[in-house]
Amino acid sequence: MIRALNPSIMLAYDKYFLKKLLHFEKSIKLEVERKVAEESGRVSREISDASRVSQANVSFAPLLVAVSQSVIQRRVGAGIRRNRSNR
């Protein structure tokens, strides 16, 4: 009804809301892009952390084997000595 009375006012009114709608659409798009980039960064950090851990495990593997073997030998040796003393 107002449009029929004054089309120039309605045109300005429509332009105003169209402008607000486009601004809202852009802000949502930017927010979505920011969230995607943030999530992508988090995933890539987790992947790089996991690769660093796996590389560290690979480089320390011989050392871990040597330490565990020496611990086992000490425990077995202590058990043998204990059994000999109990006889």
How does this model look, in words?
The protein is 97% helix and 0% strand. It has one domain (2-86). The chain starts with a helix and ends with a helix. The protein has two helices and no strands. The radius of gyration is 36 Å and the shape is rod-shaped. It is an all-alpha fold and 87 residues long.
List the helices and strands and how they pair.
Blueprint: H1 2-5, H2 7-86
- Approximate shape: rod-shaped
Q: Please work out how many helical segments DSSP would assign.
A: 2
Strand content: under 5%
- Alpha-carbon distance between the two ends: 111 Å
The profile of the biggest β sheet is: none
Percent range for helical residues? over 70%
pLDDT averaged over residues: 71
Uncertain spans, ≥5 residues at pLDDT below 50?
Answer: none
How many strand segments? Answer: 0
Class inferred from helices and paired strands = mainly alpha
Radius of gyration using CA atoms only: 36 Å
One letter per element, helices H and strands E, the order comes to HH
Number of domains: 1
Question: What's the quick description here?
Answer:
By secondary structure, the protein is an all-alpha fold. It has helices at residues 2-5, 7-86.
